[in-house]
Structures are given as C-alpha cells and as structure tokens.
Amino acid sequence: MCTYSDCQERRGWACAYTDMTGRKCNSWWCRRHIQFIERTPFCPRHASVIRALAPTANTIFEIKNRPAVDDRALPLAALVAEDVDKDVTELVRRRYQNRKDVTIARDRTVRQTWSGQKEVAWERSWAALKSQGYLIRIAVRVAAEEPDIVQLLIGNTVVFKDVPDWITRRREGESPDHADTIRRAPFLRACRRPTAGRSSRRHRRRSTAR
Predict the structure, then answer these.
(1) Residue 90 and residue 24 share a domain
(2) Domain that holds residue 180
(3) Among 121, 185, 198, 199, which one is most buried in terms of CB atoms within 10 A?
(4) How high is the pLDDT of residue 138?
C-alpha cells in the first residue's frame, strides 16, 4: 500500500534510494506520489536528496557519500532553501545594488557543514562579498541531530529557528500540508533586520568620519 498519508493505492514502485552503507529505502509509493528521476523511482524525501546532490556532481564540491536512508536534515534544508531562494537573493541584491565593488553570490544547492565541533549539518547560503571577504552571509541550516528544526544564520549567529508547519501538524496528529514549508514572513523579517542594521551602522560611521 502507498506510504503517502491516507492513500489506499496498492499498485506502485519501491523507492530505489541506497545510502553509502548499502541500506535501501524500499518504501512503497503509488503513481501519484512516486517521483522519477531519469526513470528511477524515488520517494519524495529521497527525490529531494538526489536533486540536491545533482548540481555538484562531478565537481570539486561533490558530496561523495549519500546521506543515510533515515537522514531527514538534507531534504528539509534543500526544500526550505529552495522555497526562500528568490526572496533572499532579491533581498541581498537590493541591499547592495548600488555598490559596484560588491558581488552577490549564492550556493546552487545545499552543502555539508558542521554545527559545533562534531555535529553534521546541511546548509545553503547567500552572500554579498568584497575582495576582503563577506559583507553579509545568510544561511539556511538543518542539523542532523535536530532534523525538524530549520535555522537561519546571519554570519555565524542563529537569528531564527522554526519547525515547518507540516511537521508540527504531523506531531499533533493533523493531516500535513506540504505546501507549508516554513513561516515565510518572520523568516524574511529575520533576514532583513541584521542586514539593515549592519548597513545603517556602516553608513553612520562613514557620515561621522566626514
């Protein structure tokens, strides 16, 4: 029977995802809920993993080892980052659009990083850079040890944490709505506050120097 909540379809495909240890997902999904990537069937979570890993395949940034079958952190980080990508990119671009000496950069996909000294996490970032380094760096991060919590970082500081609505609903026994990725408005407000504050402080220092 299909793994999707409340779906009663019995015909379908097993997810073909295999992790670095050889473990297979093998969850079962009907034709409405399975996702095919190059004719290979994947469950929604592992389809997100495969798509997140694809942009860096065969590059120096390639993630050599696939995440574990039960790793929920990477697909959540990829999903939320993709959802806010256009908004955060535009926010940073507008903030520095009159600065000819500034380059706007964004990760193409999530990458593996560390949260603390030993904790693996997945993140995607957006930045404004000068030759000397970052003016601002905004990142979406999900740590492997807290796979339901999305963090927003400005530089190295966590300024916002949230659990996506569909995960909260699942915990409370309600039907999930996968259209709800994260509470977008407070997330973007958290992005704006630090960038606006830092920009205005730099502006005041330049004005005072004159």
Answers:
(1) no
(2) 72-209
(3) 121
(4) 94
Q: How many domains are there within the chain?
A: 2
pTM for the whole structure: 0.76
Q: Are residues 137 and 202 in the same domain?
A: yes
Do 99 and 20 fall within a single domain?
A: no
Residues 48 and 88 in one domain: no
Under 8 Å between Cβ of 111 and 56? yes
Does one domain contain both 155 and 194?
yes
Highest mean predicted confidence (pLDDT) among 56-60, 180-184, 185-189: 56-60
> pLDDT: is 143 or 198 the higher one?
143
Helix then strand count (H, E) for the chain reads: 4, 10
Between helix 73-95 and helix 44-53 the angle, nearest 10°, is 50
Same domain, 46 and 99: no
Nearest CA to 150 out of 159, 141, 139 is that of: 141
Amino acid, res. 67: P
- How many angstroms separate the Cα of 94 from the Cα of each of 99, 128, 199? 10, 11, 12
Counting every residue written for the chain, the total comes to 210
Model confidence pLDDT, tens digit, residues 14-40: 999 999 899 999 999 999 999 999 999
- 40 and 105 belong to one structural domain: no
Q: Which residues contact 143 (CB under 8 A, 6 or more apart)?
A: 73, 115, 119, 120, 121, 149, 151
